[in-house]
């Protein structure tokens, strides 16, 4: 089922959570809403789910206007950040809940419910824990039960609110992989909210980067990372060096002094050489080297006193044999110029 | 393994505080209580039974117990309703209503007693309309039940309110997103969550009602065998200097209240354990 | 067991309480529930309050003041104040001592002690009065000894004071015990490490932390002490002008069909109840503000 949001706005008191936001999600896609807290991503998700109503704008499911439908009638599966499992029910009863509250006419029989729940338990790999209570499960297990519970009602859309936020790093990585696999198997239109750019880039088909109630850019992970449209997107999706600069005859260049514009360069797109080899470059002094990790991170000070971060592979570093306080040349491989915001 | 009375601690004043506590407790509570049981033991078992199980006493137990139960049940239902309304909705004057819920607890029982009697007397504000449709309120068991409802009102409300307030609204949202109607959400998700607190409140209201005297003694009419509550029976026997009789009935009441203590404690423990956030006990295992 | 209402430090943030439009019940259901709840409260709470004051002033304002200035009424007021004036401070000291012992230390028999402290709550007031009669009355255990020494407790002021102490016994303790328990020992240990004596630590560190709970416990204790009826009724002997407290005086006036006079005295007690509720609300508000402020303080630490 495809989802369309048109011109959604929402205010909480004086605070504008969403400002004229529009987004199209084709059927079967896994989309990440990525942004810092306060960007409106959770609000948008909840409006799609029907847990909040927008002040203005429309929501379409497969072309049908569902803007004023309640959550109950939208048949969405929602997975909450803190799971929202029913504490007084077992794992089995939690997952079966959506099936048991169906109106009598469409309610499946006890055996059917039993089979469906166990099928889901197999899917989330918790077959032996059906009789346990949520209090007896670990965080990762609870999250999987929450997912199974949402899937049990066979929703046309799956919405997840920071699903891995409260888990520790290792569990998060495993569940991320597992969600991707699940989506490949089930192909249900999914939207998930996260503030973790690594997660968004790794798991989703497309990323919508949000900031201050607006969508800054929508695109595949590659697109938003390598071709960011705005300074915010550039900044949010990885580390960045910031310089003054300008377009000189269609070619971006770094300038010492204030110009009207800003130049963005990622640390791994700066090369360090001992000799300038034509093309743009500038001088810098090495101030700090951190080689404990997959990449070597070098901090330097440009000739006009601006801090510079450079990343290079371990091999490159071994080649160069850099040392502190050495004077070197820095050659930018790729620059991005943005007009300074007025 | 040596038995230590008190775990080691750095803070001073334990001996003084505990000593004074136990002394005061003994003087005010324990010794007088002991005297009661001492006096009661002066009666032979037969005598005791004769008094404690006399028709008049039995009638008073029935009335006291029955009316207290009715009052507590009314408070169970309406207490949950009031707690829900106070927590979930806003309406003009809500703050004032919220504070006034505690009135039955703060108001002296004699004042409540004469106020309720005046309201439900045949000529009273509510007594008259009720009488015109044939319902006798004051001077009847109904009047006793009304007074005992008044006295227990705050218990269920105040017991349930914190649980409702702390309840994660996401639970209800989850139920809604899974297709549950509002009523289904309430009965399957909200109610089980507040049940321990509601029952604890019910038990406390019941316990309070059983021993109640001042609010009831005016409205009941105090007719032996009909509208005489047990505390009044004790009072009457005292007025007649029948100390043995009074003591026997008092012992029955004491034993019953002590028996009620246990379930109430258990219910309160159950209620607070539901609220605790428990830590995962099972190690992570994906495969 | 608690047949008392502990001080509430509930979270009052409006965002959590009120139902959202999207997942709440319909407006119609909402208003029906509100009307039912308000009617229930109106009948059971407002009506009794209203009738106390309307009956008290039924014969006019001057009659109201006259009934309060009547000598028997005045001595009833005096006796009530005396009983409360002795019972409340004593129970306050006891409450603090018990809370200190129970809240800050672990020892054998602690739960038993807590249950025993709760005992007066679970006992009917009439039984409470009877207990003292059986100890100090003429035919009581100590009766003969007392009459030999010409001391009278029952049917005299001392008995009333004792009965009042008994029924209000647990109030302060029950408020303070959870408070002192929740605070832990760290602040006191810090004070001791800095050289403070036990008493200094107590007055300068522990006491200020529990001041709202203490105030609330005292107010509640006082309200009950002044309003106690059943227990005092048993031990008093109803001697007008001598052993009548305000509640007993109300009863006498009522039984003599002096309704407006009875309600006039009752109105004083009702005002006391309202004042108690007012203090409770204020104390809860203050305690909540204190909690919120310290929570904010912790939050700021995290950000920094």
Structure description:
- The complex is a heterotrimer of chains A (342), B (287) and C (304).
- The longest helix of chain A has 18 residues, at 169-186.
- Chain A has 10 helices and 19 strands.
- Chain A is an alpha+beta fold.
- Chain B contains 13 helices and no strands.
- The relative contact order of chain B is 0.13.
- In chain B, helix 2 crosses helix 13, helix 8 (141-166) crosses helix 10 (182-211) and helix 10 packs antiparallel against helix 13.
- In chain B, 74% of the residues lie in helices and 0% in strands.
- Helix content of chain C is 76%, strand content 0%.
- The longest helix of chain C is centred in the last third of the chain and has 45 residues, at 259-303.
- Chain C is globular.
- The model of chain C is unreliable at 11-19 and 299-304 (pLDDT under 50).
- The A-B interface holds A 49-51, 70-72, 74-78, 80, 82, 84, 86-88, 97-98, 101-102, 125, 129, 132, 135-142, 149-150, 152-153, 171, 174, 178 and B 168, 170-171, 173-181, 184, 188-189, 192-193, 274, 278, 280-284, 286-287.
Q: Going across the major beta sheet of chain A, what is the strand order? A: 6-7-8-3-9-10
Written as H for each helix and E for each strand, in order along the chain, the element string of chain C is HHHHHHHHHHHHHHH
The biggest chain-chain interface is: B-C, 106 and 116 residues
First-residue to last-residue Cα separation of chain C: 44 Å
Number of DSSP E strands of chain C: 0
Largest sheet of chain A: 6 strands, mixed
* Count of helical regions of chain A: 10
Overall, the morphology of chain A is elongated
| Overall shape of chain C | globular
C-alpha end-to-end distance of chain A:
41 Å
Enumerate the spans of chain A where pLDDT stays under 50 for 5 or more consecutive residues: none
Strand pairing plus helix content of chain C: what structural class? mainly alpha
What integer value in Å does the Rg of chain C equal? 24 Å
Q: What order do the SSEs of chain A take from the amino end to the carboxyl end, as H and E?
A: EEEHEEHEHHHEHEHEEHHEEEEEEEHEE
Strand content of chain C: under 5%
Could you tell me the radius of gyration of chain A in angstroms? Answer: 25 Å
Oligomeric composition of the shown chains: heterotrimer
| Secondary structure: number of strands of chain A | 19
